[in-house]
């Protein structure tokens, strides 16, 4: 060979190994060596971890949706019953008055009922989607990512605000003229015997208080849902590692 080539040195003959220990095509690991982080075994380990994360996230999501649906249903039913009781008795007069406070403030009860009803509807849609298929549920849940950052952020803000406003409405400036505040007030106690056949204030007071406690539990549950989002973020980063391993390992073998 008269001309130098990439695979030979001036002193070598065709068919002879290169001199001087120079092997241009040989990398630092040796021919065909696959770095340990790109082996099939490591790829399988990454996939197993991804499967565990996926299962954990799915279980937590289902449990969270079920608990949220239950809590929201409880609140919606209690608030719905309170609104119905007021609407059906507000025009009943005994001794020149109704069973309710003057200028009854209904918005705290309506607000909490509306928030609970929307939450129940949304979570039932996702749970029904889970019954059809996980993929469908994830797709619906992703629409929640638009209503998700809105649903997660929204749920937290809405439920914390709703619980706070409902409590605030109970005795604004010392005036008990909402359904919860009035039913627990001394004024309601004084007329209970007169309106015993119309409304049970003690029962309404207890129901309203329980609805508020449940709304607090719902708000806390929404805040704890951040754990699910953290695990989902971890899985997203983990899947990127798997993609890198898949793209490199086959080329190295």
What does this structure look like?
The chain is mainly alpha-helical. The chain has one domain (55-252). The model is unreliable at 4-9 and 22-35 (pLDDT under 50). The chain has 8 helices and no strands.
Per-chain topology:
Layout: H1 40-89, H2 107-132, H3 134-146, H4 149-170, H5 179-183, H6 186-191, H7 201-224, H8 226-252
Helix pairs in contact: 1-2, 1-7, 1-8, 2-3, 2-4, 4-7
Keywords: Membrane, Transmembrane, Transmembrane helix
Transmembrane segments: 62-86, 106-131, 143-166, 211-232
Protein name: MARVEL domain-containing protein
Tags for this model:
253 residues; transmembrane
**Secondary structure category:** mainly alpha
Shape: elongated
Compute the separation of the termini in Å.
33 Å
Q: Overall mean pLDDT score?
A: 77
How large is the radius of gyration? 34 Å
Percent in helix: 55-70%
Number of helices: 8
Uncertain stretches = 4-9, 22-35
Instruction: Domain count, please report it.
Output: 1
Largest sheet: none
Task: Sketch the topology as an H/E string, one letter per element.
Answer: HHHHHHHH
Question: What is the beta-strand fraction?
Answer: under 5%
The overall strand count is 0
């Amino acid at each position: 060979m008269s001309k130098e080539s990439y695979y030979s040195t001036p002193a070598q003959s065709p068919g002879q190994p290169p001199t001087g220990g120079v092997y241009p095509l040989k990398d630092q690991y040796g021919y065909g060596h696959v770095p340990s982080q790109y082996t099939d075994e490591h790829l399988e380990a990454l996939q197993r971890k991804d499967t565990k994360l996926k299962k954990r996230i799915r279980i937590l999501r289902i449990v969270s949706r079920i608990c949220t649906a239950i809590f929201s249903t409880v609140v919606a039913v209690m608030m719905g019953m309170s609104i119905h009781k007021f609407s059906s008795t507000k025009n009943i007069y005994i001794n020149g008055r109704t069973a309710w406070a003057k200028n009854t403030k209904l918005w705290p009860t309506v607000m909490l009922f509306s928030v609970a009803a929307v939450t129940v509807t949304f979570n039932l849609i996702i749970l029904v989607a889970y019954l059809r298929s996980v993929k469908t549920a994830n797709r619906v849940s992703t629409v929640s990512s638009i209503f998700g950052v809105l649903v997660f952020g929204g749920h937290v803000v809405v439920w914390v605000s709703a619980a706070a406003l409902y409590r605030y409405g109970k005795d604004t400036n010392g005036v008990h003229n909402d359904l919860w505040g009035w039913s627990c007030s001394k004024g309601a106690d004084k007329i209970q015997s007169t309106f015993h056949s119309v409304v049970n204030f003690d029962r309404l007071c207890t129901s309203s208080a329980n609805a508020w406690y449940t709304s607090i539990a719902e708000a806390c549950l929404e805040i704890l849902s951040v754990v699910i989002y953290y695990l989902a973020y971890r899985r997203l980063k983990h899947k990127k590692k798997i993609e890198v391993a898949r793209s490199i390992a086959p080329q190295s073998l």
